[in-house]
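Section 5.1 Outputs to date
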Amino acid sequence: GVVILSPLSRQRAALPPSPSLTPFEARWLAEVVRRHEERHGALEDADALAAARAEPRATDSAADLEARILRRADLLGARAGWRGALLAWRRRARLVLLATLGLAPVLGFGIAAGVLGDGSRPVNVVWALGGLLGVHLFSLLLWLLGLLVQPATDGGGALRHGGVLGRAWLRLVTALDRAPAAAELGLALGGVLGRGRLAAWGVGAVGHALWALALAGAALGVLLLLATRRYGFVWETTILPAQAFVGLAAALGALPAALGFPVPDAATVIASGDAPMLAEAGRRAWAGWLLGALLAYGLLPRLALALLCAMLWRRAARTLRLDLARPGYARLRPRLLPYSERIGVSDPAPATLAHAMHHPAHLTTGGAVALAALELGDDLCWPPSATPAPAFDAGRLDSREQRRAALARFAADPPRRLLVAIDPRRTPDRGSLGLIGELAGHAVDTRVWALAPAGAAAPARLGLWREGLARLGFAADALIADEAAARAWLAGVQPEQG
């Protein structure tokens, strides 16, 4: 036989397998498609829609709908070039991150060399500590304040609170590609990162990691310079008393001392204010105080925050879901996940349909009355109001499991009267008619109710339903189109004879 491929199928067959997307990237791509369709109209998606609807059903309808949206977006994104642009963005992000990770320690080393100098003049310990930790502490304070005031869902504005270095890395990655397909990625990324503090955790993890490496380079530079040059340490002031520096040195040295670093005592601090500390023990104490403060208040907090943010990012990314209430996703629900789907048949059509089999006459007394709905439209409410109290409602029979449960229930307890509601706007198929025949085989008397919306004109397919029911062996009056007549029959009220 000859196999005819659609253009999209031929395109996929000609290309090598594309790298798979992470769950976060898949939702990012879905946001790109949604934003584009909301601004420019729906894309042609016949092939993508068919492939998405072929995805296996899940027990959770929301998860099922999201999986189908992601599948559709993946196919449409591959066709429009967004998927390739996203993969290129991933590669650039990794390369830029590796480059900045390698550059950060070098910059930190340079800062340390600039702060300590060449040893020809004494080092002011206050200015040295401020030069090593000042920008870091200010940046960290801004990040913490932004984290406190930022709402949990802040849209694209959440990127403001990802940290200075993290935001710089993200903007550099985005700026390196000016292709039209890549232009759609930035806004969509902001929308995804704005949910569940993903920006604060993800971009923050990158920023803290860069700061940690820069501070590690600074610590290495301080250690190397202290090991190869002789520095004298001093503090200077015009208006502050010496005890202010004694208290400052003791307060800042408490944590380094707990980590095992030497710190200057009060006598050493006071002596360093009159002249540069040149004594061996004093120089060692000030060097340990400076290096310990750099590690305790700089490197270790940034390293801990980088690990914490990375862990929170992974947890938030695992729980990230699309906002299915957005109009761009909500309009896809009836197309990707209709309330009822035809199960269909895989065997050839028989020459004649099996006739409805009824129970013997001794079952005409006793038994319950029951009603069920078969493939009703979304605009038809079920169960109907004012149902007779003793009636058993088998519910909507749209899935295999629901149909099997109803058949098993009726086989164990055959109803005296069974009313099957159908949507007369649908064309009857062999699956629907066959199920009606099976249900009728477990009931004493069965009627089919053509449940149409209130005020609607008589559906044109009523004749097809009558013909199909006739082939099953139902009488001409088995199809009831009037709601009052259907309720009266279910309640056992005989129609008046005119």
